[in-house]
Amino acid sequence: MPGPLSHLTVIELAGIGPGPFACMLLADMGARVIRIDRPPVPARGGLEALMRNDSVVDRGRQSLALDLKNPRAVQAVLKLVEKADVLVEGFRPGVAEKLGLGPAECHARNPKLVYGRMTGWGQTGPLAQAAGHDINYVALTGALHAIGKADQPMPPLNLVGDYGGGGMLLALGVLAAVNQARHSGEGQVVDAAMTDGAALLMAAQYGLMAKGFWQDQRESNFLDGAAHFYGTYACRDGGHVAIGAIEPQFYRQLLALCGITDAHFEQQWAQGEWPALRDKLAALFLTRTRAQWCELLEGTDACFAPVLSMNEAIDHPHNAARGTFVRQDGVLQPAPAPRFDRTPSALPAKAPRTGEHTLELLAQAGYSASEIEELVGAQVAHPELPA
Q1: How far is CA 116 from CA 10, 171, 263, in A?
Q2: Short-list 65, 82, 62, 87, CA closest to 12
Q3: What is residue 40's predicted lDDT score, i.e. its pLDDT?
Q4: Has residue 381 got a pLDDT over 50?
Q5: Which positions are annotated as active-site residues?
Q6: Which of 14, 73, 136, 187 suits a disulfide with 132, CB 3.0-4.6 Å?
Q7: Closest to 135 (Cα-Cα) out of 191, 216, 90, 198
Q8: pLDDT of residue 51
Q9: Using CA atoms, how far apart are residues 230 and 247, in angstroms rounded to an integer?
Q10: Domain with CATH 3.40.50.10540 in the chain
Q11: Angle between the 71-81 and 369-376 helix axes, to the nearest 10 degrees?
């Protein structure tokens, strides 16, 4: 694959959620990502079956199917580790060590390896061994409390813990560690916990609260739906628009373009007036369709955008012009981001079938046909493998 990370090799011990998302980001940027999958089991279902091989988050991999309960399979992974730059795992703390694939075993084979660990609670702490999901990790950080209506928190999909605080920060962490290893010659363990990451995403809110500009109650602040100048409004046709006119000059532009002359709106930052001003704006936006508001406000400094559905977003002229969304084999998905002017990324191949590259990868690692057959079974025997 092209891209700025085309020199990196990543070993991914297959999982779900933020670990695969981090590896998708690395693959999108050109890294060679070898995913160690469990051998396919026809009856396997549940959340793993729902979230795996979806052609989007799992794109850009090579898949090597190995039963890690087999010591010979573990040795095969360690053989790959010898030439890798990064290993990513998302097991509960201690599981990788029990398999014989913990940091000590991997660093013994490759001292420069960056060992990325993705968990919800982290490798240490009283909750480290507890089960959980995004909503639990976000709840522990103040982030979930801050999102939603005044009377009830609202889960922000699984974006704040899993993908923002988890996968993205894991990708950042391993790249920082790879850069450091190139200077020192020594790898290290990157402990990426979704609780830590979700808390970090709240840095601005904690900073505002320290200065007295943020209240610890939902729908009481200028970014959480309380302010009339920052929120969503229903239109006459049932569509919605988003307004974010925070700065005074942008707020004045919104009022001018909407023809608002009511002096009440001059009290932009009078928090006690926000509910009444929101009601007035709500009534105004109900007078036109979403398309009519777009015609009036889109592209201006009023800080306006239509609220688009996932299916609508791909056809918006701005997204279309930038190629923000693409289709691959009929699957609509976001294109790689961010963009690089000298080493541009390209859309990686779709998600591989489980074990699709087993023969190729084991042969490249130096295994003979008979050794591969003994390791993974007669199903992978192939006359083209080296004797």
Answers
A1: 10, 9, 56
A2: 87
A3: 74
A4: no
A5: 133, 162
A6: 136
A7: 198
A8: 53
A9: 11
A10: 9-201+327-356
A11: 130
What pLDDT score was predicted for residue 45? 55
End-to-end CA distance of the chain: 29
Mean pLDDT value across residues 123-145: 96
pLDDT at 378 over 60: no
CB 25 within 8 A of CB 57: no
Per-residue pLDDT at 385: 37
Residue with tokens 């450091």: 180
Q: What is the mean pLDDT of residues 370-375?
A: 89
What is the distance between the alpha carbons of residues 74 and 83, in angstroms, rounded to a whole number?
15
The domain covering 230-321 belongs, at the CATH homologous superfamily level, to: formyl-coa transferase, domain 3 (3.30.1540.10)
Helix 18-28 and helix 169-184: axis angle, to 10°?
60
Please confirm whether the linkage preceding 338 is cis (ω < 30° from 0): yes
For the whole model, what pTM was predicted?
A: 0.92
Give CA–CA dist 37/357, Å, rounded. Answer: 11
Average per-residue pLDDT in the chain?
93
Neighbours of 366 (CB within 10 A): 9
Measure the CA–CA gap between 96 and 98, rounded to whole angstroms: 5
- The three-state secondary structure class of 305 is strand
CB neighbours (10 Å) of residue 99? Answer: 18
Question: Distance between CA 315 and CA 212 in Å, rounded?
Answer: 42
Q: How far apart are CA 143 and CA 123, in angstroms?
A: 21
Structure tokens at 362: 């084991």
DSSP string computed for 250-276: HHHHHHHHTT---GGGG-TT-GGGHHH
Mean pLDDT of 336-349: 94
In this prediction, residue 41 has a pLDDT band, given cuts at 50, 70 and 90, of: low
Distance CA(55)–CA(52), nearest Å, equals: 8
From-to residues of CATH 3.30.1540.10 in the chain:
230-321
Closest CA to 28 of 322, 314, 356, 337: 337
| Longest alpha-carbon distance in the chain | 86
Strand 188-193 versus strand 114-119 pairing type? parallel
The whole-angstrom separation of Cα 201 and Cα 329 is: 35
